[in-house]
Specification:
Chain A is mostly helical and 484 residues long. Chain A contains 25 helices and four strands. Among the domains of chain A are: 155-246, no CATH class; 262-362, no CATH class; 378-442, no CATH class; 444-483, no CATH class. In chain A, helix 22 (432-441) runs antiparallel to helix 23 (445-455). Classes of the chains: A mainly alpha (484), B alpha/beta (573). Chain B: Keywords: Protein transport, Transport.
């Protein structure tokens, strides 16, 4: 008898699985709330006249600051259209912010407490000092400067002069040899501006093939030219260079990149079609193909749905008007859209989810996640249920998911699923600790109680009693378990 | 410099820096009539003179050219002046010759805090590390020249990375030319340490958990100030707050027990006794300060609440777990499937990219199967045009695919995890000689970047720089600096240097008198080429406190993982 009791004690007392309750976090937040309250109550002590503080506009910029003033210019220039509006905003929302602390601009505080040298100059002084200008002379100097220039500087001197921002004519470097020495000196000088300047000169004065050939063995200079061409948008020259260098993949990518600048969807689609044949890697070719197919589908779906929506016959569109067009959206977004508006369509339809899944070989996991999110958003719990129900050959049904059930719960919860729906999936979470966490968090009392029962954790179960409503079915359930 | 009334056009990203040193009334003194933002909107103005304050960018030049040409078409004649900041670069001259005068606003250094100077050149990262363009090296050299003209020569220079080396050399060239000026001056900054961002991508890719880092990741700090939106201010407006060491309430020096300065002053005043005038002064000055602090405090509390809300929503815990697993190199499968799910659920595209890059760098590239499947899913979730992003990430080395032979590294890391003695080291070395890679795992082991923690890491009593990542990881960049300063050179770090792909240097300036007793020996200018994060700043501040150093930061820009990832995305022209 006594032994049995001891066993029972042991049986009940092992309170290993203490559910992590989010109360902890709540505590921290409430602590913050405490401090907030304390700080706010201080407001009464600190006298509240704000006159001496800077005024700021509705956007939070101090009135008189540059960014504020620019917005003002912008809004006043459109004031004929919406002047009423902007004056309203302005009037209602000036308030105080903190004056800037001018002392922060000085580095002198760095040396606070150390022996401050008399010669020490603070950075802010230095910056306002016009003498600093000497470090950054203009690249383009007044005409008079041209006089001090000599025609027999060595390439090195030329580069050094250019680095210091002085004007130099490069025209006198005539032979290929001279030009290349100049380029090499520029590269050795580490100043990208000079390198680019020399390259612009070479680009203008050398035959393409020669320039390309020489750059092939000068990687740093080559990078500069490629970057220059990209920035200035000399696409044709760039492609020629890349082709010469046999960088076929870059040729392809660089052409593909242009689609970003095409606004019109029809033109974009045509352009992408042309990209399919470009020399991409095998893997990327299929991505490009998918990109084209996706846009093609989107154009069809968009045309149909816009029609449906304006006709006003379809209930789903009436109930949930579209917020944006589906054009140029990612595949997963498109799938979500189609699960939302076209869930039940037959596979033959371009807009049906199953069609998308097949065409783009969307993995099961991705499909289920997206379909779940879409159907949950519509609160179509039956569809959710069907998504996870599988039948084996004996006709038994079973719930299965390619993603963890804790994720399913999370998504459902975010869409405000009722507890009855939620708890069905919480129950399926395999990891006991996670299950307890989720069940406690989302108040799925039955699941908590059952889990503790299965764990034979009497202590926790007793403790949980105070979390359920008095006299509720849950409390009864706990009592009956405890009494058994 | 352009006399008479004029309209000023300012580029958006120059507004915040200008705001910090000037305001509208100063501009008005310079006869600026109206202010416009440079954007693709035709300007309607009656002014006879236009002044443009811009970054040297092709896009902006085209915008200006459009305005000028439109004026020409309509027969208007105006004077135009373009001011480039920080300097004019050659590329802008490629836009067809315009009849304008040009100038430069040599704005190289923006002090963000008492120990942080930013060059505000966020494009440095992409231009140098992705495109291989050296155009900003000159700017870095000039910034160094400016600093050394203010604070005397740097006694000792250390550095790692190709760009560090080039910047240092170009700066030396500039110095040599102006030799004589700084001769014989006593150095006020004894040491300088230059580092390329690509020496350590891992640290920059980690989620930040120090306060400023969190604020930067969540709200984006611009030029040292942050816009707190309505959810923080608990009103319908947003407020701009300057974050720096003067602000005594933000918890960015969590362990310090400094008495706020005004307390000291206040105490002093009390001791001396105050007359009426002083009293009045005290009330108007000090109480104003109090009030401001009170308001700031409530803002920071609001910010904390908002961060906490966001973090709990994004299952931050899970993400941190995955990140720590990646750093430690355990259970890569689990982290990979976490990332996969992240992508499938269309959680932020930038976060997904960041996690993939972290996986790639810590594992020396993804195995081909994972690479393909993650890439495909990414393109499906966030858009096929990210094909270009992947290409960029591959070029810069942030997200790579292991070549067929490299799969050995997977075996290697497993082996070295199993065997913990010296044999493992040998195996690692043997495998590493096969390819030049990020080698994070090996470096991490050599430098002990993953602290062995017995029990909880007490964040209130930080033991090492790992505290900036809740005790899970010592930032590599900072560890390198620590090691080199400790050894006064690279001696004994040969293996690490080899794994970091070399390009290290340590130079003593023989013309500078070297007196170890000088305070300047304890001061280090840490130069980050390509950006540094608030976490790194916090870590080095901590190191400075521990070892009696004082770090000053010079960075091309403050960066974080999102900015780095965004720099890799192709935008339309």
């Amino acid at each position: 008898m006594s032994r049995a009791r001891a066993d029972e004690e042991e049986y009940w007392h092992s309170s290993k699985f203490r559910a992590f309750t989010f109360d902890d976090e709540d505590d921290e937040l409430s602590q913050l709330k405490e401090s907030k309250r304390a700080v706010n109550s201080l407001r009464d002590i600190v006298d509240d006249d704000d006159d001496d503080l800077e005024r700021v506009s509705w956007s939070g910029e101090p009135v008189g600051s540059i960014s504020w003033s620019i917005k003002e210019t912008a809004s006043s220039s459109t004031s004929s259209l919406e002047g009423h509006d902007s004056s309203l905003q302005k009037g209602s929302s000036s308030y105080a912010a903190f004056p800037k602390q001018a002392s922060s601009y000085s580095l002198s505080s760095l040396f606070k407490g150390r022996n401050k040298l008399p010669s020490f100059q603070s950075l802010s002084d230095a910056l306002s000092d016009t003498g600093v200008k000497n470090y950054a002379p203009e690249l383009r100097r007044p005409r008079a400067e041209y006089k001090d220039y000599s025609s027999d500087w060595s390439p090195k001197d030329t580069v050094i002069r250019m680095q210091r921002g002085k004007v130099c004519s490069l025209e006198r470097f005539r032979s290929l040899q001279d030009k290349l020495v100049l380029l090499d000196e520029a590269v050795a000088g580490h100043d990208g501006n000079v390198i680019t300047a020399v390259l612009i000169f070479l680009k203008r004065t050398l035959r393409r093939e020669i320039l390309f050939r020489e750059l092939e063995v000068r990687q740093v200079a080559l990078c500069h030219l490629i970057h220059f061409l990209k920035e200035t948008g000399e696409q044709k020259f760039l492609l020629d260079l890349l082709r010469f260098l046999d960088r076929t993949e870059e040729v392809a990518l660089s052409q593909y990149r242009e689609h970003l600048n095409i606004q019109d969807v029809e033109k974009r689609r045509e352009f992408l079609k042309g990209c399919i044949g470009l020399p991409f890697s095998a893997e990327d070719t299929s991505h490009i193909q998918d990109h084209y197919t996706l846009l093609e589908r989107q154009i069809i779906i968009e045309a149909n749905d816009r029609h449906l929506e304006t006709a006003g016959q379809s209930e789903i569109f009436r109930k949930y008007p579209r917020k944006a067009s589906i054009l140029n959206m990612p595949l997963v977004t498109t799938l979500f859209y189609s699960c939302f508006y076209h869930y039940t369509e037959a596979e033959g339809m371009f807009s049906s989810p199953t069609n998308l899944k097949k065409t783009f070989k969307i993995p099961d996991k991705q499909y289920v996640l997206t379909a779940l999110a879409a159907r949950a958003k519509l609160r179509a719990w039956d569809d959710v249920d069907a998504l996870f129900t599988t039948k084996n050959w004996l006709g038994y049904t079973k719930k299965k998911a390619p993603i963890g059930f804790h994720r399913v719960v999370e998504i459902l919860q975010r869409n405000n699923a009722p507890v009855q729906v939620l708890q069905e999936y919480v129950r399926l979470v395999e990891d006991v600790e996670t299950r307890l966490n989720l069940a406690t968090k989302y108040k799925c009392h039955d699941v908590v109680i059952e889990t503790y029962r299965d764990l034979k954790d009497r202590v926790q179960l007793t403790a949980y009693k105070c979390k359920v409503e008095r006299g509720s079915a849950e409390e009864e359930k706990i009592n009956s378990i405890l009494n058994n | 410099q352009l006399p008479g009334k004029k309209d000023l056009f300012i580029e958006a990203d120059l507004m915040s820096p200008l705001d910090r040193i000037a305001n509208v009334s100063i501009l008005k003194q310079h006869e600026v009539d109206k202010l416009y933002k440079v954007e693709s909107r035709p300007a309607l103005s009656a002014s006879d003179q236009f002044c443009f304050l811009v970054r040297p960018r092709i896009r902006t030049m085209r915008y200006i050219a459009d305005i000028i040409n439109a004026d020409k078409m309509s027969g208007r004649s105006r004077k135009y002046k373009i001011i480039f900041s920080p300097q004019k670069v050659v590329i802008v001259t490629s836009v067809p010759n315009l009849d304008v005068t040009c100038d430069e606003w040599s704005f190289y250094l923006l002090p963000l805090d008492e120990d942080i100077i930013s060059m505000e050149l966020p494009e440095f990262f992409r231009d140098y590390f992705l495109e291989g363009d050296h155009r900003w090296i000159n700017s870095v050299a000039r910034a160094l020249q400016l600093l050394s003209s203010l604070y005397g020569p740097f006694g000792k220079a250390y550095g790692i990375g190709r760009c560090a080396k080039m910047s240092y050399e170009l700066w030396r060239d500039l110095e040599e030319e102006s030799e004589g000026e700084g001769q014989g001056r006593k150095p006020e900054i004894g040491n300088i340490f230059l580092m390329d961002r690509d020496t350590d991508y891992v640290t920059a890719l980690c989620s930040q958990v120090v306060y400023e880092g969190l604020v930067d990741d969540t709200f984006r700090i611009k030029c040292g100030s942050v816009d707190f939106g309505p959810d923080v201010t608990s009103s319908d407006k947003s407020i701009k707050v300057l974050l720096n060491a003067q602000d005594k309430v933000s918890p960015h020096v969590p362990w310090g027990n400094q008495v706020p300065q005004w307390h000291q002053e206040e105490a002093e005043q009390r001791r001396r006794g105050m007359d009426i005038k002083q009293m009045k002064n005290f009330v108007s000055q000090e109480l104003k300060g109090l009030k401001q602090e009170h308001r700031l405090l409530s803002l920071h509390i609001g910010a904390c609440e908002s961060i906490m809300k966001k973090k709990t929503k994004q299952d931050f815990q899970e993400m941190m777990k995955a990140e720590h697993l990646l750093l430690e190199g355990f259970d890569i499968r689990e982290s990979t499937s976490f990332i996969e799910e992240h992508i499938d659920r269309q959680v932020s595209p930038i976060e997904s990219l960041r996690l993939m890059c972290l996986l790639s760098i810590t594992e020396n590239g993804l195995n081909p199967k994972d690479y393909r499947s993650l890439k495909t899913q990414y393109l499906q979730s966030y858009g096929p045009e990210h094909l270009l992003t992947f290409h960029n990430l591959k070029r810069i080395g942030l997200l790579t695919e292991q070549a067929a032979g490299d799969t050995l590294t997977a075996v290697e890391s497993k082996v070295s995890r199993l065997v913990t003695d010296r044999a493992a080291g040998k195996i690692t070395d043997a495998f590493n000689s096969l390819a030049r890679k990020s080698n994070f795992r090996a470096i991490s082991k050599k430098l002990g970047l993953i602290p062995r923690v017995d029990g909880e890491y007490d964040l209130k009593m930080p033991r090492d720089m790992a505290y900036v990542f809740s005790g899970a990881y010592v930032p590599l960049s900072c560890k390198i600096i620590e090691q080199v300063l400790e050894r006064r050179g690279w001696l004994g770090l040969e293996e690490v240097v080899r794994l970091l792909n070399g390009n290290e240097f340590a130079v003593s300036d023989s013309t500078v008198e070297d007196n170890p007793a000088w305070d300047s020996q304890r001061i280090i200018l840490a130069v980050f080429l390509g950006g540094c994060t608030f976490s790194e700043i916090a870590a080095l501040r901590f190191l400075g406190k521990e070892r009696g150093f004082k770090f000053i930061f010079l960075t091309t820009a403050i960066t974080n993982s999102s900015r780095m990832m965004e720099a890799m995305i192709e935008a339309k022209a």
